[in-house]
């Protein structure tokens, strides 16, 4: 989510942006921030959202229950597995 908000929306203004995730914990974590593991990623998400809001964008994060037939979910899982293979993790850094 941190990477998805950082790069593709650079220069976008006055839009309604919705981020959908099947990770219910991620949505909950963003709605109730406190010190926890992964805080660096959460801070990055907040920073990205703040930058987008400065450009008059409206940001919504929604949870969507995953289903095994969901093609987008299958694609995301495949890409996530590929990105976490040994040696590739640094290549896909979100910073």
Give a quick rundown of the structure.
This protein has a domain of 65 residues.
Describe this structure in words.
This protein is an alpha+beta fold and 95 residues long. The protein has a domain at 2-66. Helix content is 44%, strand content 13%. The protein has a two-stranded parallel ribbon with strand order 1-2.
Give the helix tally: 4
Estimate the mean pLDDT confidence: 77
Oligomer: single chain
State the share of residues found in helices, binned by percent: 40-55%
Shape from CA axes?
A: globular
* Strand percent estimate: 5-15%
Report the count of strand segments: 2
Listing every helix as H and every strand as E from the N terminus to the C terminus, the arrangement reads: HEHHEH
| Rg over CA atoms | 14 Å
Largest sheet: 2 strands, parallel
Please identify the structural class as seen in this structure.
alpha+beta
> Which regions are unreliable across 5 or more consecutive residues at pLDDT < 50?
none
Organism: Colletotrichum incanum
Keywords: Nucleotidyltransferase, RNA-directed DNA polymerase, Transferase
GO molecular function: RNA-directed DNA polymerase activity
Protein name: Reverse transcriptase
């Amino acid at each position: 989510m941190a990477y998805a908000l950082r790069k593709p929306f650079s220069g976008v203004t006055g839009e309604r942006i919705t981020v959908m995730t099947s990770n219910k914990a991620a949505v909950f974590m963003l709605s109730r921030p406190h010190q926890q593991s992964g805080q660096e990623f959460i801070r990055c998400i907040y920073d990205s959202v703040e930058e987008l809001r400065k450009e008059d964008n409206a940001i919504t994060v929604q949870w969507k229950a995953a289903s095994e037939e969901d093609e987008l979910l299958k694609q995301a899982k495949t890409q996530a597995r590929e990105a976490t293979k040994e040696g590739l993790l640094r290549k896909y850094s979100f910073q």
